[in-house]
Write a structure and sequence with these properties.
Elements: E1 19-28, E2 31-38, E3 41-48, E4 56-60, E5 68-71, E6 77-80, E7 86-90, E8 94-96, E9 105-110, E10 113-118, E11 128-131, E12 140-144, H1 147-158, H2 163-170, H3 176-179, H4 182-188, H5 190-202, E13 206-212, H6 213-217, H7 219-222, E14 227-231
Antiparallel strand pairs: 1-2, 2-3, 3-11, 4-10, 5-6, 6-7, 8-11, 9-10, 12-13, 13-14
């Protein structure tokens, strides 16, 4: 028998990406941890009931042999292999209280564990919902542009502003380490963006971009794996 799942009604639009019934819901030290299927993998949420609950939550890391995790300045975590190449990662986490207000949260690394710290206090409106954002796929990143970002991308293409300007929109959602190679990858794959972006903008829809790790770590050969598709907007 599973525990009652995390309540998602107070999560601001655009943060909750789950679809359908929960995959799994369990109790951890008085808090609830629930996983939901998403279009790009799985979203795991932690529901913290009150100020007496733990403020730290630990997740074991499956590191490649000789690999290591690296915490970036923007709060994301990249998993590197023995050669220093990115093979996986985690976006920066978020947390909100019962009124949808942001609660400070961050990652830290301890050996082979990823620790999420949620900085609530007695005046926080509970329950708090936190997302360690463990849904980054092993193959890379999946990014859905907002309606406004899709419109901006279409205008960049229409005005021939070039790949460097387009990369500012197409790479903006990636954590720091992954974004480093994204500009070069977008420049090489520029014409893959043109038709999907224009179609999405004309239909009032949004664009989803798959960035395989090879496209970000070795753009000159990995850019061919980038795919750009039209999807429904979430915001």
């Amino acid at each position: 028998m599973t525990d009652a799942p995390v309540e998602t009604s107070s999560i601001p639009s655009g943060l909750f990406r789950g679809e359908g019934d929960p995959l799994l819901s369990t109790a951890v030290a008085g808090s609830t941890v629930t996983s939901f299927a998403t279009q790009d993998g799985v979203q795991t949420l932690i529901q913290i009931p009150d100020a007496s609950s733990p403020s730290e939550y630990r997740f074991p890391l499956d590191l490649p042999e000789g690999g290591e995790p690296v915490l970036s300045s923007d709060g994301a975590v990249m998993i590197l292999d023995a050669d220093g190449e990115p093979v996986s990662g985690f976006r920066a986490p978020w947390a909100v209280d019962a009124e949808g207000n942001a609660v400070p949260t961050s990652f830290r690394l301890e050996g082979q564990e990823l620790v999420q710290v949620v900085e609530f206090n007695a005046s926080t409106v509970f329950p708090v919902v936190a997302d360690p954002d463990l849904g980054v796929e092993w193959w890379g990143h999946w990014v859905r542009l907002t309606r406004g970002e899709t419109r901006t991308a279409a205008n960049i293409i229409a005005n021939n502003q070039g790949p460097a300007v387009l990369a500012g929109v197409a790479c903006g959602a990636l954590p720091g380490p992954a974004a480093l190679g994204c500009g070069a990858a977008v420049a090489l794959a520029y014409f893959k963006f043109v038709d999907p972006v224009n179609r999405a903008n004309s239909a009032g829809k949004c664009v989803a971009i798959n960035y395989p790790w090879t496209a970000l770590s070795t753009p000159q050969i990995g850019w061919v794996g980038i795919s750009v598709t039209t999807v429904n907007c979430t915001r």
